[in-house]
């Protein structure tokens, strides 16, 4: 295989444990997956399945007392070469370039992911100034361009506004601008539309799709909603109690699920259920 | 034969909020028209869905019916079990108290709606105490019966909410709402925060209890899929007004209002071969630019 055709990210035998006073909890147990450039892998499962911990491992932001206890997270970066994120030193400059530079994340709750005391524009500009060698004036211009690109009208005026002045949909657009402004090679989207209305959800998902096509980045989508998965993902991995119980192309997994847990999840969909009478 | 009078009849319900803006030179008063001239009936025994996006006024309608808020205008005619009809919109706080057991509420978030310092016994028994319905052994027995009917083990009644999962907590909230044997139960996004499978179980429980206790349910939700599954009739709200009201099959198979059609087309199919609507933004803008 040529290097270009190797997947952008290859996670193998990842294990994450939480060292609680009551004992050790294996939140992620020996999971492996890979995502090629330009493709989207959806990680689905119920709350507590280990989806978000897996996502946070890729950025090395697993909250204490959680720790990566084994496995490899190989990122084949165009800009920085091959990196094993799992074994990077906590204080290494490379880890800082990975976080928010090579790999960035869209969080679920746009209200808590943004600082309430800084203007939304300055928060996007901060990401640029952290990762790129540009002047504050240039960062401002780049920010306004990016805000316009994610579909925010009057971007220059919006730059000065604070999160509480924006609707949920606009806030999520700001988060997306922030995540994509440094042109990450991997985008992690953790339930990016769970908190949004259906019409807003459709718009935000369309936006993520378009920007992914434009940047050519890989996407790891964390979701519990099969509607979102069906519309966004190329491949699906189903998590249950810290393990991946089924993995495959989206059509195969959703239309012909093999594992009992996948079938149970799909059967819980209101549209798949007989009317409750 | 005349049809039986509705359990609840909402007529011209309007709720405006005024927000005072203090500027440097002048003060202005901004009026938010949260609910504007909304009318509908609830037939005894039905599950009625009230849907719409955030800010459309659906929760305000529910809060007016519960009289957590006083409406600006309109009537809320409620039929009591003895056949009398009262206008909830006009009653004072003192007149409302004896009527409150008839209309109860399940909130969206079982993590913030249950007092973390109260045991399950106290949480579920409190309404009986407040309304002087039971005490002592009788109270305890009532609580145990109620817990059993929502599928919880009465042996766990001395535990605190934190010991329960989200789905179990919502069952505690349902028990607390139903222990007074209301005739109308308002569920405000009662299943929104739950995992799919837990949500499905809770909906089944609600349906079962509805039949058993002959409940009428006002189901406020933004998830159309859940409403399709649970409700007999659906009303769609937008910008404080009701844009469409029809039976569930009619709403989902032959929606009349363009906004209802847009809402339905925004739903994501779990089938990868049914593409999503990528023009929602444009269609919404078009809807806003054409006068109703």
Strand count, sense and barrel status of the largest sheet of chain A are: 6 strands, mixed
Distance between the termini of chain A: 56 Å
Major beta sheet, strand line-up of chain B: 6-7-8-3-9-10
β-strand amount of chain B: 25-35%
Helix and strand pattern of chain B: EEEHEEHEHHHEHEHEEHHH
Oligomer: heterodimer
Q: How far from one another are the termini of chain B?
A: 37 Å
How would you summarize what this structure contains?
With 277 residues, chain A is of the alpha/beta class.
Task: Give an account of the 3D structure.
The complex is a heterodimer of chains A (277) and B (292). Chain A has 277 residues and is an alpha/beta fold. Chain A is globular and about 55 Å long. Chain A has helices at residues 51-59, 93-98, 110-113, 120-131, 136-149, 155-158, 168-180, 198-215, 226-232, 250-255, 260-267; strands at 9-20, 23-35, 40-44, 66-77, 81-84, 103-106, 186-190, 218-223, 235-240, 243-249. In chain A, the strands form two sheets. In chain A, strands 6-7-8-3-9-10 form a six-stranded mixed sheet, sandwiched between helices. In chain A, strands 2-1-4-5 form a four-stranded antiparallel sheet, with helices on one face. The model of chain A has no long low-confidence stretch (mean pLDDT 91). Helices cover 36% and strands 27% of the residues of chain A. In chain A, a hairpin with a 3-residue loop joins strand 4 and strand 5. Chain B is of the alpha/beta class. Chain B has ten helices and ten strands. A six-stranded mixed sheet of chain B has the order 6-7-8-3-9-10, sandwiched between helices. In chain B, strands 2-1-4-5 form a four-stranded antiparallel sheet. In chain B, helix 3 (120-130) crosses helix 4 (136-149) and helix 3 runs parallel beside helix 5 (166-178). The model of chain B has no long low-confidence stretch (mean pLDDT 92). Chain A binds chain B through residues 46-47, 151, 168, 197-203, 205-206, 224-231, 250-251, 254-255, 264-266, 268-273, 275-277, and chain B through 53-54, 166, 195-200, 203-204, 207, 222-226, 228-230, 262-263, 266-278, 280-281, 284.
